[in-house]
Amino acid sequence: MITLLGFGLSTQGVAKFEIDHGRAFYWVTNVDERDQLLAAYPTALWREEIPKETTAVVISPGIPPHDARLRDCVAPIYTDVDWYFYQKKPDHVMTIGVTGTNGKSSFVAKLAHALSVAGMRAKAAGNIGVSPFEINDADILVFELSSFQLHYTSYAMFDIGVIGSIRPDHLSWHGDFESYKKAKERLSFFCRHLMRGDLNDQLVCQLTEAHFGVLADLSKYTPLPFRLQLSYQDADWLVINDSKATNIDACLYALSRYSHVKRLYLICGGILKESISDEWIMMLRQPHVYPVFQGQSSQVMYDAVKKGVIVKDYRQAILYCQHHGGGVILFSPAGSSFDQFKNYMHRGQVFEQEVMHGFASIA
Fold first, then answer.
1. Model confidence over 327-352: pLDDT tens digits?
2. Which CATH number fits domain 2-78: 3.40.50.720, 3.10.180.10, 3.30.1330.60, 3.90.550.10?
């Protein structure tokens, strides 16, 4: 009998598949997740530790290999992507795996969109937030693959693999940059054809033309939520929600987009995934930038920049900006969301709510 480890979107997708096929399974989570899990999946056999009779473990990729619950585990470990290839993937479904440090989600979404516009049944899956087990009407699946997933990958085999640029990220999970890079590069062993390059529109076009014989049409593509998304605008204010910026490089890109404004309030913080770069520090020290730090890394960020203010939540952050005059409010966290939120989407939604509350009060 298999064991699911961790209560995330990936293991929930596997759980639904196992239930649909009438198979029993163990589910190991933290004690504080037990009630929520059993309310949603009453047939699950909840445990605090992996049972000895486990034949396979399907793991939430965010759980690191040094997790205490894995210490005595001898069963093979799979991700939900592996389990999909092992248990469900129809022979006719073509698969594309995409990894890199920045731009994965947008690239995957654009590629799936371009193939759909060209008349193919293509869907995005994986780390973009959709379990492949939830998709039953696609002939092409485009997977976003994180370094966590690739670290554990052992069974999946993609028809096409795409590796974008790799820069330091998730160092606390992997231990160092070389281990992180090695995890990303593992995709080259799990694909039949490999492409490399910046994860941009040009590479989308190159891939669709080379492998499908079509020109990518992105004219009607709708950007993913919370990637430099406009939240509010009036005569005095422009508010941008960039919750998708989960690392320093993504935040730097967002800052570069607004380097011309007279007053820029940067709201950032979360769980840092790499060291703070000198470039980021210098950007925040520019006279027109007013940093506002919130979340687990707020004190570390403040100490590095030696400028700005620490606040307790987004409501207080918005009030601080409003008190100091009009300009651009850029919410670009530069860290992951898991100190306070389920994921970057949840974080972005909470920020949107606080923007609506804060600016409704001054309208």
1. 999 999 999 998 899 889 999 999 99
2. 3.40.50.720
- Mean pLDDT over each residue of the chain, to the nearest integer: 94
Average pLDDT over every residue of 140-169: 95
Superfamily the domain 229-360 falls into: Mur ligase, C-terminal domain (3.90.190.20)
d(CA 319, CA 331): 14
Q: Cβ atoms within 10 A of the Cβ of 102, count? A: 22
Taking the C-alpha atoms of residue 264 and residue 306, their distance in angstroms, rounded to an integer, is 17
Q: Structural domain boundaries of the chain?
A: 2-78, 84-212, 229-360
| DSSP-assigned states of every residue in 266-288 | EEE-SB--SPPPHHHHHHHTSTT
Question: Under 8 Å CB-to-CB from 238, ≥6 apart: which residues?
Answer: 230, 232, 327, 328, 329
Give the angle subtended at the CA of 237 by the CAs of 236 and 238, to the nearest 5°.
145
What is the CATH number that goes with domain 84-212? Answer: 3.40.1190.10
Mean pLDDT within 115-119: 97
**How far apart, in whole angstroms, are the C-alpha atoms of residue 362 and residue 341?**
27
Residue type, 309: V
Neighbours of 4 (CB within 10 A): 29
By DSSP bridging, strand 122-126 and strand 26-28 are: unpaired
